[in-house]
Write a structure and sequence with these properties.
- The chain is an all-alpha fold.
- The protein has a domain of 37 residues.
- The chain contains 2 helices and no strands.
């Protein structure tokens, strides 16, 4: 078996960065999130809550796509 060549500090940094990207990309998006439930009858408060949910979901999807592009 040939001798292993030591990685440079830059190569090690790139390896760590890539592993972190893969971990973030492959993380279970549902981890820590409760099962789907009703926000209750429609009201200005529940509409705000729903809008915040939709916005957060879109931001999470954009982040996931961004991580995929970086890999």
């Amino acid at each position: 078996m040939p001798d292993l060549i030591e990685m440079t500090s830059n190569q090690r940094r790139m390896l760590v960065d890539t592993r972190q990207l893969w971990d973030a990309r492959d993380a279970d998006p549902a981890a820590g999130i409760r099962k789907m439930r009703s926000f209750g009858p429609r009201s200005p408060d529940t509409e705000k809550t729903y809008e915040a949910f939709v916005t957060g979901r879109a931001e999470a999807q954009e982040r996931l796509e961004s991580l995929g592009q970086r890999l």
